[in-house]
Design a protein that fits this description.
The protein has helices spanning 7-20, 43-69, 79-117, 121-128, 133-143, 148-170, 206-218, 220-223, 303-306, 331-339, 413-425, 436-442, 450-453, 464-483, 521-546, 557-560, 578-584, and strands spanning 171-187, 254-255, 281-301, 313-314, 324-327, 346-353, 360-379, 382-390, 503-519, 590-595, 602-607, 615-616. With 625 residues, the protein is α+β, with helices and mostly antiparallel strands. It has three domains: 1-33 and 576-625, no CATH class; 35-173 and 516-550, no CATH class; 189-501, no CATH class. Helix 3 runs antiparallel to helix 4 (121-128) and helix 7 packs across helix 14.
Length: 625
């Protein structure tokens, strides 16, 4: 078709063309006949549309999963969590490609449908030029057209990069603090006296006890001020020595490190607590107890001048000797104490030889049981007691009854308790030699330093409060070593079995930093909008393809050959799709040039003159119509 505007020139050119030129020969002699079919007869097109819808639905599933699992730990999401992470990683690359494929195809289908129904060239050119994001912008500038359709196309295409960024940025993985609770066991320090140590021959039952006790004494240098013992058990401070303590009737929690001072602990060993979460922060409270000493007498003592002491229960069931502990209470006193909550507490005496150059040290102490509530905090397995107060949860707890008072047995609790301890209180048979207990009482750090303990000052010089504290620490340590032999080294076992002690339970509340699924609300809005548009466009493309029956137009050179007399092609072929026409015409050489031989030279597209066509090359600087 020649681009003439004058009808007369058009007629003259037609006559001149038919008279002066032979019609060029074409390699294609006859177009094949083809029927027009609706979209239902084009299964490949339908399959492509359905795949586009499925891909869009995959993004919808991603959005739904993200909304459903928001606020839940990533581990709980199992395989879904991996799906979210992988799609978030690949989304910025895959989403724009998917968007461009679906939208570009839908625009082509819509343009084809509009052409089937009849449409203005301006809109068709805009649609066919807007099958890509950059093509849309360049087409608008080239056509110099601004309208609702053009603006709409720009806005829709802008959702492609925004959707890709939304997939990348919508998923937020944060370390949230998740709180959980569970019941755990801990050793009851107020347990009954172990029956194995009531026997006349307790065989080797005291061997591990002595080992644990000795290990505790040896670790004082490194663990004296630590909130845990060397095995990770929680040490209990002495409530009575804390600033702010106002007596057993007080109900306020007392902060243990409120004044940045290191507390005195009731024992060198701590209370074993089982199943504390290793990688979480935990808090809990527990009821526990310890022996508390009030030493009203601490002085030098000359046995030769003052005579023997009046004792009924002592370590060796013999005369009270130096380096020993004993009680003057008999069975009658114990019975009264077991039945009368107001009866005086147990008294415990200490006698120690301070060396060749000194007299003995004598002490007389009142022993009570302190029942306390303790708040503890743990960072993993690193725990410490943070607050304490007198216990009031069990009205039956009495301070005048101690582990030394066996109300339901033979009443000789002190004798049973001191018997295994005698080896540690013994000097080894050498007169004037200090025992481990004497060494600890004077200087806990130098307990095993043989040279140092031989030059220690007399025990009575350390003062009543310090003596009472260390004396109680020794017995509390030995008691825990006796009743919790296995638990002390159990590394927070989930359950304590085969113990001499009974076990109590407490509720542990744990806070853990857990990787949790969240989403960014702003980017979620962008992703929902973009995905909605993609899904809508996919469905619209499918519906449009179903109602189109005209052949596909590729809007390329093969399209220009339709009905163009400047190509030496046979008539017909209009029912063929452009891709089929392109395959049939792939050998035809065309040029955008000049049709020579007419009165005027016209620039147009046609087959090349050197191959039997009629279009020759144009020359720079020449004027053409």
């Amino acid at each position: 078709m020649l681009p003439f505007s004058n009808p007369q020139l058009k007629a003259d050119a037609a006559v001149s063309s038919t008279s002066s030129f032979d019609k060029p020969k074409s390699r294609l002699l006859q177009w094949p006949r083809a029927k027009l079919h609706g979209g239902i007869s084009r299964p490949f097109e339908l399959l492509i549309n359905i795949l586009g819808i499925l891909v869009a639905l995959g993004i919808v599933v991603y959005i739904c999963i993200l909304l459903r699992f928001s606020g839940r730990p990533l581990k709980e999401a199992e395989g879904v969590g991996n799906y979210l992470v992988e799609l978030s990683r690949l989304g910025p690359t895959v989403y724009p490609l998917m968007f461009a494929f679906i939208l570009g195809k839908a625009i082509k289908s819509y343009a084809r449908w509009r052409m089937q129904r009849g449409e203005r060239i301006g809109l068709l050119d805009l649609l066919y030029g807007s099958t890509t994001a950059t093509g849309t912008v360049s087409t608008i500038f080239e056509l110099q057209t601004i309208g609702l359709v053009a603006i709409g196309l720009v806005l829709i295409w802008s959702l492609s990069p925004l959707g890709g960024q939304a997939i990348l940025r919508v998923l937020l993985l944060k370390n949230d603090i998740h709180t959980s609770s569970k019941m755990v066991q801990y050793v009851d320090s107020n347990s009954s006296f172990p029956t194995d140590f009531m026997l006349g021959d307790y065989a080797g039952a005291n061997v591990p006890v002595t080992s644990l006790f000795s290990a505790s004494l040896a670790s004082v240098n490194s663990n004296q001020n630590s909130s845990m013992d060397q095995w990770g058990n929680i040490k209990i401070p002495i409530l009575e020595l804390l600033p702010g303590y106002s007596g057993t009737e007080g109900r306020d929690w007392i902060a243990i490190n409120d004044r940045n001072t290191t507390p005195e602990y009731s024992s060198l060993t701590g209370i074993p607590v089982g199943a504390i979460p290793r990688n979480q922060n935990s808090t809990f409270t527990m009821e526990t107890s310890y022996l508390h000493f009030d030493c009203h007498t601490l002085r030098s003592y000359n046995m030769s001048a003052q005579g023997p002491l009046n004792t009924t229960n002592n370590m060796n069931s013999k005369a009270f000797r130096w380096g020993q502990m004993a009680s003057a209470d008999g069975s009658n006193e114990v019975r009264k104490r077991c039945t009368d909550p107001t009866f005086r507490p147990q008294s415990l005496q200490y006698l120690g030889w301070d060396g060749q150059d000194y007299d003995m040290t004598y002490a007389n102490c009142t022993v009570t049981t302190s029942h306390v509530e303790v708040k503890a905090e743990c960072i993993g397995w690193s725990c410490s007691a943070t607050h304490m107060r007198p216990s009031a949860t069990s009205p039956g707890l009495r301070s005048n009854l101690t582990l030394l008072d066996l109300c339901n047995a033979t009443l000789n609790g002190l004798g049973y308790f001191l018997e295994p301890l005698k080896l540690l209180a013994d000097s080894g048979g050498r007169s004037g030699s200090p025992s481990l207990i004497q060494g600890f009482l004077v200087d806990p750090v130098q307990t095993f330093n043989i040279t140092a303990v031989r030059t220690n000052p007399p025990v009575y010089t350390i003062g009543k409060v310090r003596f009472a504290t260390r004396f109680a620490q020794l017995l509390n340590t030995y008691w825990l070593s006796m009743i919790a032999t296995g638990a002390l080294q159990a590394d927070h076992a989930s359950e304590y079995r085969l113990l001499y002690a009974s076990a109590l339970e407490t509720n542990v509340t744990s806070d853990a930093a857990v990787m949790t699924i969240h989403y960014n609300k702003a980017w979620m809005g962008v992703l929902i909008l973009s995905t909605f548009v993609v899904l809508l466009v996919s469905i619209a493309g499918l519906v449009t393809d179903l109602v189109i029956w005209v052949p596909r137009l590729m809007m390329n050179v093969s399209t220009l050959t339709r009905g163009n007399s400047n190509f030496g092609l046979p008539a017909g072929g209009g029912a063929l799709a452009d891709e089929e026409r392109s395959r049939l015409l792939k050998g035809v050489r065309v040029r955008f040039g000049v049709v020579s031989g007419l009165d005027d030279e016209y620039l147009l597209i046609g087959d090349c003159i050197e191959e039997g066509g009629r279009v020759s090359g144009a020359h720079k600087g020449n004027a053409y119509l």
